[in-house]
Fold this protein.
Amino acid sequence: MPDKLLESIVDTISEGVYFTDRDRRITFWNRAAERITGFRAGDVTGSRCRDNILRHVDEKGTELCVHGCPLAATMADGQPRQAQVWLHHHDGHRVPVDVRAAPVTDSSGAIVGAIEIFADRSDRGAVMEELERLKKEALVDQLTRVGNRRYADMALESRFHELETHKVPFGVVLFDVDHFKKVNDAHGHNTGDRVLVMVATTLAGALRRLDAVARWGGEEFLVIAPSVDLPTLEHLAERCRILVQAAWLDLEGGGKLEVTMSGGLAMAEPGDDAAKLVGRADALLYKAKESGRNRVLAN
């Protein structure tokens, strides 16, 4: 759809850009789109944008390509749209992006397609700088690239200090990947490792800027959220659960692998220490597992 000059210009910008025709078939995919999504232009050009590519979801897990596609709505009424969504990365995890969609018209004004521009909201530049700093302090889990147990212990210590000295509330969510042993048994430990990376990266993209996530052990992840009340923590935990459920891995032999998480969440209370707080979350996680999995329970 765009001419060669326009393509060369769009390829230089830092935001992801792609064009579609009226059937939502992708006709152009810029370099930033490749970087943000992990999908190469040659892999997606000619495909429809909903065909197992980006598969945008909102924080409730609604698949916008099926229910509420911004591009389809824009081509229907000619009005530009903006949204905050999570796209599907080639490696399986979900990436938070700001999306802008606008119609593309021909010389007569007829709508012949659409353009979508999307920007990574996860602030990866700052994140990577922070990870580099943390690596030097041996606080990063080597597989998942989120914080490790030592990092979680330090973050909890800081949050308890803020609670005691400045009355800043905080809470934690302890997540566990459901049926993870079955994943390893059925697909091997390499695929199991890929699942853990997918889950960790999706969790990192689901959190607020001041929140922290760490691999607590095995397939368990601890989210530490400052300045929250219980309803806010519940909302955050549910968003994490839904976005992990909406992520998947493409398997080498065909098909896709999806996983779910169960979680328990607890607010820090006066007189707590890390063991008591995480212990309450762990007890609720166990109840979530017993009551059917793929859910979060609060104290």
User: Anything to note?
Assistant: The radius of gyration is 21 Å.
